[in-house]
Amino acid sequence: MDAYLIPAVDGVGYGLLLFVVAAGLTLAFGVGDVLNLAHGTLFAFGAYAAAKVSDGTWLSLALAVLVGTAAAAAGGAVLSALLVPLAGRGHLAQALLTFGVALVVGDLLVGLFGPDELPVKVPALLDRPVDIAGHSYPGYRLAFIGVAALIAVVLYVVVARTRVGSLVRATVDDRDMVATLGVNPFMVRTGVLAAGGALAGLAGALGAPIIGPGPRTADLVLMLSLVVVVLGGLGSIGGAFVAAIAVGEIQTIGVTSEVTQDFAPFLLFGAMAVVLSARARGLLTSRRSAA
Amino acid sequence: MQRRSLVSAALAAGLLFAAAGCADSDPKSTSGAAASTLKIGFLGSLTGTYQAVGTDLKSGFELYLATHDNKLGGHPIDLKIADEGDGAPTAVPAATKLIKDDKVVALTGIVGGGSVAAVAPLLAEAKIPLIGSNGRPELKDLSGVWTTSFMSTDTGQSIAQYIKDKVNGPVYAIGPDYQGGYDQVGGFTTEFLKLGGTLVNGKATFTPFPTTTNFLPFFSQIKASNAKAVYTFYAGKAAIDFVKQYAQSDAKDIPLYSAGFLTEGSVLQAQGDAAKNILNVCNYSPDLDNEENRKFVAAWKQKHPDATPTTYAMASYDAAAVLDRAIAAAGENPTPESINAAVGKLGQIPSPRGNWQFGPKTHSPIQKWYLRQVRNDGRALANVMVQDLATVGA
């Protein structure tokens, strides 16, 4: 059992990373009604910022987080503007547009940063193993778990306890009603896509040492966060949290167990298929439980 | 300033001597008549995932040409370069152009085993020999296929005896679950079991590729298994992830042995100090002490001051050396057929890796493998030669 302690802890870290990314995606869908297939690319913005800006000092790490978050938020806002002509054309048109943007920008990123996956430097204090109950674990990952948990709590408080949060929840419940109350839907969508982008960029900058920047990063992150969003119930932050931790654990404990090893590549999508067939709306449904 | 020009003068003089030395040993430098220009095709990944390897192959071949008057076997060379991309789908049209439009007399390079498998039938049909310098899959028809790198199973096979002698207890073997991983790690486990060694679980563990970027769960398994050593093969980004995570994991105190590609070329700088002390096996080390290697490394440093030559560049340099000798032996008007026949009769080939020759069964080198360790060589992290291992090949 002892051998599973570190993978279990690591699963929480991986899950929290996925949660921060997927929260942005699920917000964009639940509130903005946008299926943003360029979400993984916004994560890559943050990851590349970390690789290029962070040079092992705390200040550069903070700067990288700032740059990555800002760039991804701006990217989200630009997407919102691009989507204006598609009003009323449904999710397929949105998916095609955002996917096209993801392909083009992905190519630009490769042109800009090269085809290799870039290494990321972290402050020396974190770049060493720490002891957890007699087991060694990378210090950065432990710190990441703390920071990501904090982000999750802040996100919960914002959505559940603030005026902006109540607007978000109201929009998830009944978008048209909110619009009739005088809230400009375009502004809501831009705001939520920018906020979703910021979450992706933040996750990218902080998570770059775990899922590093490279040509495949955007696809990997998009795929995993789509799984999380689908499992968690579209638009539900709480559902996304539960699903993200579950996916994180499947990805870590699942791949090492003798029994499940051979099925590891299928575990994730197997879990998704099981949940979808049992509860088509996801683990936690969004109505009245957006938080 | 003065000091610097002195150094460059000395270097230039050294190069001149080296060039003169080559000219002397050049088998056909005596022929007086102006020889015809020959077209050689180079196919390698100049874009995409394997760009680093493809670029090294190109640099290695071009270095040989640059240090040999742009001539192979006395004939001026028109090198036609094409991009292999990520694999067979891009390699085939590129090779077709080299064969049909450029009408090259021989083809070299090719990073991916899949690309070689797809291109080989086209070459066989056109009767053009392939002097490949990297990928080498299982092939049925080897009559026109030669490889200057290695067979994937050779790497692990050559270090099995050393690990058996050094490690007192079970070894954990782990690698990526694609053909290269099966061959590289399988080469080790097959030989190791044959020698009476013990593997954890009795067999190697293969991780899903390329989806596995987090190796920590496996390292926890390794720690729990009480393995006394780990043998592994990864390349590219997976190698960076593996090494960086290993150094901070539960398994960090268990000795790590690997195929040389784990710490070869650009990945080593990215791994940084995490790679220190890793013992790895390769068919080349830049600090090998022989005449050919001193020439090769000096010429390479002249062109690429910031990079150490890799085994990829070395194998491609050797592909040019093979063509040099074969073309010289192929008569006045070398044809693809006569060049191919001449390659088969070459015998020992002097090389930066030490002398080697093509094995009759595999058309790949019978060569010595070396144990290297990642250390700081005074300027940067490097793979430093430790000792000779087995000579492998057939």
TrEMBL record, chain A:
Q: Where in the cell is it found?
A: Cell membrane
Record-level Gene Ontology MF annotations: transmembrane transporter activity
Per UniProt, what is the membrane topology? Multi-pass membrane protein
Q: Which residues form a coiled coil?
A: none
Protein's GO biological process? amino acid transport
UniProt-listed InterPro entries: ABC_transp_permease (IPR001851), BCAA_transport_permease (IPR052157)
The record's annotation in CDD domains points to: TM_PBP1_LivH_like
This protein's GO cellular component annotations are: plasma membrane
Major localisation: membrane
- Keywords from the UniProt entry: Amino-acid transport, Cell membrane, Membrane, Transmembrane, Transmembrane helix, Transport
Q: From the record, give the transmembrane residue ranges.
A: 12-38, 58-84, 96-114, 139-159, 220-246, 266-284
Pfam family membership, one: BPD_transp_2
* The keyword Oxidoreductase is assigned to this record: no
Q: Which family does it belong to?
A: Belongs to the binding-protein-dependent transport system permease family. LivHM subfamily.
Instruction: Tell me the protein's name.
Output: Branched-chain amino acid ABC transporter permease
- Originating species: Dactylosporangium siamense
Species classification: Bacteria, Bacillati, Actinomycetota, Actinomycetes, Micromonosporales
From TrEMBL, chain B:
CDD domains this protein is in?
A: PBP1_RPA0668_benzoate-like
* Signal sequence, renumbered to the chain: 1-23
Q: Record's Pfam families?
A: Peripla_BP_6
Looking at the record, the residues that make up the Leucine-binding protein domain are: 37-378
> Any idea which UniProt keywords this protein has?
Signal
Tell me the superkingdom of the source.
Bacteria
Keyword Signal assigned to the entry: answer is yes
Q: Identify the InterPro entries for this entry.
A: BCAA_transport, Leu-bd, Peripla_BP_I
Q: Tell me its family.
A: Belongs to the leucine-binding protein family.
Write the protein's name. ABC transporter substrate-binding protein
Q: Which organism is it from?
A: Dactylosporangium siamense
